[in-house]
Amino acid sequence: MEGLRGPSDYSQEPTRHPSLRINAKTPFNAEATRDDLIASYITPVDFFFKRNHGPIPIVDDINSYYVSVGGLLENPKQLSLADIKKLPKYNVTATLQCAGNRRTEMSKTRTVRGVGWDVAAVSNAIWGGAKLADVLELVGISNHTAVTPSGGKHVEFISVDNCVEEHGGPYKASIALDQATNPAADVLLAYEMNGEVINRDHGYPLRVVVPGVIGARSVKWLDRIDIIEEECQGFFMQKDYKMFPPTVDWDNIIWSTRKPQMDFPVQSAICSFKDEDVVKQGKVTIAGYAVSGGGRGIERVDISVDGGKTWLEAHRFQKTDVPYVSGDTSSDKWAWVFFKADVEISGDAEIIAKAVDSSANVQPESIGAIWNLRGILNTSWHHIRLQVA
Ligand SMILES: Nc1nc2c(c(=O)[nH]1)N[C@H]1C(S)=C(S)[C@@H](COP(=O)(O)O)O[C@H]1N2
Ligand SMILES: [Mo]
């Protein structure tokens, strides 16, 4: 890990925007307010959620930084940032969502363990970097490879941060080799975020971005890439970020019975209001975001102002004044849509949003049906109770 260092304490953290809501200080976990989140379709770096499991690494000398690519490879290589920048550069607009988004709300029905998040552990950026498929080609693995001759089936990403859950070891995760070597999957090694050099909080000098997949697989501060036979055995793949049924609790959990979560399901949240906000009778605008994993676009966002008895369809957009058509090649398949609906409120109202993705997957109605002990993937219908003054 030359050039890149994971400090063991929090004395050298970067400065952050004062209006972020801090959910945990050490490791630093914070999200934007609902208003800040939907103020811009591309989330400004300052307001992009920050999800860490240890102190933020430091680059001592960018000229001695390199990524080691090894594991089940005939010719392991060390790639400098310059080597990676020599590859064709792609800009991919992709929404990252932490699997813990909306955990606080899930915990209200029955307690779950984990950092509490409101609805903003999700953000959208333009990531600039090289395709992982091109990087793997450099080390001799051609596009669309599911298994290498040496038996490699997964690509493991290893960082340098000191994570509590790894007993001071680094954060790591893996994805399947066929996804990593598929140029259309748009998996990036990103060195830019929103047109600027990626900052320390988000992975400087280089991070993985796996579009359409829970944020946990997009490893920041990349140090090593290993081609491996079985998926990564790290804590965050094997003992966390798995979806368990509501019957499983801490006394009967068997982690090995479930697969690591990869794609995230269809999600939406109303951001223009908070619960118990007081409004004037008449017209109000309901606005928020909707996003689905796996490159599935958003087909529809339904809004109810009467607790789910009747519904109307919200207007969806990615670019202002351009109607969004899911599946259209001009739309960003890895990115959220914003939605808006003008509705009439005559008295206290229960507002609900639910989204439908391009495969007709719909958000589940109740939290109870998807409750899980770690409180991940709360994608239940989003409710807001409004009071009329
Ligand atoms: N090295 C490293 N990579 C990491 C993490 C981490 O703690 N260490 N957290 C992961 C999780 S759980 C999420 S949701 C995303 C968050 O990325 P962000 O902080 O840029 O929003 O980074 C992922 N990559
Ligand atoms: Mo996450």
Tell me about this structure.
This protein has helices at residues 34-37, 81-86, 103-109, 132-138, 177-180, 235-238, and strands at residues 4-5, 21-24, 29-31, 50-51, 58-59, 66-71, 77-80, 90-97, 122-131, 154-158, 172-176, 188-193, 196-197, 207-209, 224-228, 267-270, 277-279, 282-291, 298-304, 312-313, 315-317, 337-345, 349-357, 382-388. By secondary structure, the chain is mainly beta. It has 2 domains: 4-257, Sulfite Oxidase, Chain A, domain 2 (Alpha-Beta Complex), CATH 3.90.420.10; 267-388, Immunoglobulin-like, CATH 2.60.40.650. The strands form 6 sheets. It has a 5-stranded mixed sheet with strand order 7-6-15-10-11. Strands 8, 9, 12, 13 and 14 form a 5-stranded antiparallel sheet that branches. A 5-stranded mixed sheet has the order 17-24-23-19-20, with no helix packed on it. The protein is globular. Ligand MTE binds next to β4.
CATH architecture of the largest domain: Alpha-Beta Complex
Distance between termini? 59 Å
Which strand order spans the largest sheet, edge to edge or round the barrel? 7-6-15-10-11
Q: Give the structural class.
A: mainly beta
| Ligands, ions, cofactors | the ligand Nc1nc2c(c(=O)[nH]1)N[C@H]1C(S)=C(S)[C@@H](COP(=O)(O)O)O[C@H]1N2, molybdenum atom
Average predicted confidence as pLDDT: 96
Element-by-element helix/strand order: EEEHEEEEHEHEHEEHEEEEHEEEEEEEEE
Radius of gyration using CA atoms only: 21 Å
The CATH class of the largest domain is identified as Alpha Beta
Give the oligomeric state of the chains in this entry, treating copies of one chain as homo and distinct chains as hetero: single chain
The helix tally amounts to: 6
Number of domains: 2
- Secondary structure: helix percent: under 10%
